Amino acid sequence: xxxxxxxxxxxxxxxxxxxxxxxxxxxxxxxxxxxxxxxxxxxxxxxxxxxxxxxxxxxxxxxxxxxxxxxxxxxxxxxxxxxxxxxxxxxxxxxxxxxxxxxxxxxxxxxxxxxxxxxxxxxxxxxxxxxxxxxxxxxxxxxxxxxxxxxxxxxxxxxxxxxxxxxxxxx
Length: 171
Description:
alpha+beta, eight-stranded mixed beta sheet, globular
């Protein structure tokens, strides 16, 4: 087990090297990869047996959202950046760096902003790693199974099968 700053750095490095990780959030685990890396997103689709259903994307901040998506109404920005942190469907820009496999054949993508400290640390950590501005954040479970809530459930269902690394926390 790696703990503390080394665990965060290893998770960030794994994502930037095209890997898939499981990350413990507030309501359970999410599966995560670089939403700009076509190979990583396709690999996640294959491992989750999810050929076309869109993946949600967590963006670093509103600047990253504006770089990838069209904000049609000022209310969209207020809602996205509000305290509830919902997933909002936004039109993807033709110049968006997001992988086409994020939402195959769909002009819109589900976008959210970080809401948990561990998610914020994934995007911004002083370890010298150049981190992506967009992460897939999808339910941490095999196809048809309930979402993993505990570290033990995540190890049993996800480790080595869907993801190569689990980043947990005790918040």
